[in-house]
């Protein structure tokens, strides 16, 4: 009985202590109600921002995209009549310094085919080549762009600011045997990269029908068609095919349909 009394007292003490602590916590919450409200709002806002932009940023900058180029680029043949087509493309891959063994992890808009990096414009150009059996030419710059997406954006911005003329590593193609050129380029700062602009300015394209495929991260063709028209003397086809960068791998049907439209 004595031990029951002691246990009962202890339980009572415990309840008192718990009650006191609960009151202290309640008092604390009451006093700092405003602070907790603000903290709550910040957490909710952070979650919203994360879902709206964060996941997109991570996907764009750190996700790896695997591709099998021969499969992805394989398209059914399109009847091109008596056209002689050259497909020209510019892409970051081949013009940027990617460290040995780098995968797509640190670089937006890059795909990897068993460790070999592939640019979006390159894959699109290979689709065109496959469907039209055209010759293909990659614009290669003397200048080496950084591997980082953000740094490349800064370099490109500087190029635009001074209207930089880009030097090429290889001779420009002789267009005399061609009737049509399909030019595939990434949209940079809402327009064409200076490498593409310089290419168009240096090539005499009079009499050539120029068809455009623009790949982009959401802006669409933006000012790039206007920029192409200003830079070239080719007959520019205004039916520009635009391909969102995330959709490049599965753009085969879209490319085929666009090529079919241009048959007549
Ligand atoms: C320097 C730079 C500027 C860019 N500017 C734009 C832009 O203005 N609008 C847009 O939608 N995407 C922009 N992008 C995203 C690319 O157009 C897009 O990821 C494209 O598919 C990349 O093609 P590539 O792999 O052939 O280089 C830019 C990318 C870079 C590197």
CATH class of the largest domain: Alpha Beta
The termini sit apart by: 105 Å
Structural class: alpha/beta
User: Would you identify the regions where 5 or more consecutive residues have pLDDT less than 50?
Assistant: 103-108
What would you call the shape? elongated
CATH topology of the largest domain: Rossmann fold
By DSSP (H or I, 4+ residues per run), the number of helices equals: 8
What would you report as the Rg, rounded to the nearest angstrom?
A: 29 Å
What's the count of strands?
A: 9
Count of structural domains: 2
**For the report, how would you describe the main beta sheet?**
6 strands, parallel
CATH architectural group of the largest domain: 3-Layer(aba) Sandwich
**Rounded average pLDDT:** 88
Chemical compounds bound to the protein: flavin mononucleotide
CATH evolutionary superfamily of the largest domain: Flavodoxin domain
Strand content: 15-25%
Q: Helix-strand pattern, N to C?
A: HHEHEEEHEHEHEHEEH
Query: What share of the residues lie within helices?
Result: 40-55%
């Amino acid at each position: 009985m004595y031990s029951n009394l002691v246990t009962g007292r202890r339980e009572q003490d415990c309840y008192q202590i718990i009650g006191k602590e609960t009151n202290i916590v309640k008092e604390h919450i009451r006093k700092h109600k405003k602070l907790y409200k603000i903290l709550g709002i910040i957490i909710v806002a952070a979650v919203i921002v994360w879902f709206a932009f964060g996941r997109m940023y991570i996907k764009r900058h750190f996700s790896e995209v695997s591709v099998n180029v021969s499969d992805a680029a394989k398209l059914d043949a399109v009847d091109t009549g008596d056209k002689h087509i050259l497909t020209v493309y510019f892409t970051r891959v081949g013009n940027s310094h990617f460290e040995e063994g780098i995968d797509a992890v640190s670089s937006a808009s890059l795909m990897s085919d068993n460790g070999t990096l592939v640019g979006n414009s390159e894959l699109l150009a290979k689709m065109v080549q496959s469907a039209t059996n055209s010759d293909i030419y990659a614009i290669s710059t003397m200048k080496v762009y950084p591997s980082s997406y953000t740094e490349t954006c800064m370099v490109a911005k500087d190029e635009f600011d001074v209207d930089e003329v880009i030097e090429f590593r290889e001779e420009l193609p002789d267009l005399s045997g061609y009737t049509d050129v399909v030019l595939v380029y990434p949209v940079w700062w809402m327009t064409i990269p200076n490498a593409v602009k310089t290419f168009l300015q240096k090539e005499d394209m009079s009499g050539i029908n120029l068809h455009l495929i623009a790949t982009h991260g959401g802006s669409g063709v933006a000012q790039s068609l206007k920029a192409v028209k200003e830079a070239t003397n080719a007959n520019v086809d205004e039916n520009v095919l635009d391909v969102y960068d995330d959709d490049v791998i599965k753009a085969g049907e879209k490319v085929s349909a666009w090529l079919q439209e241009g048959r007549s």
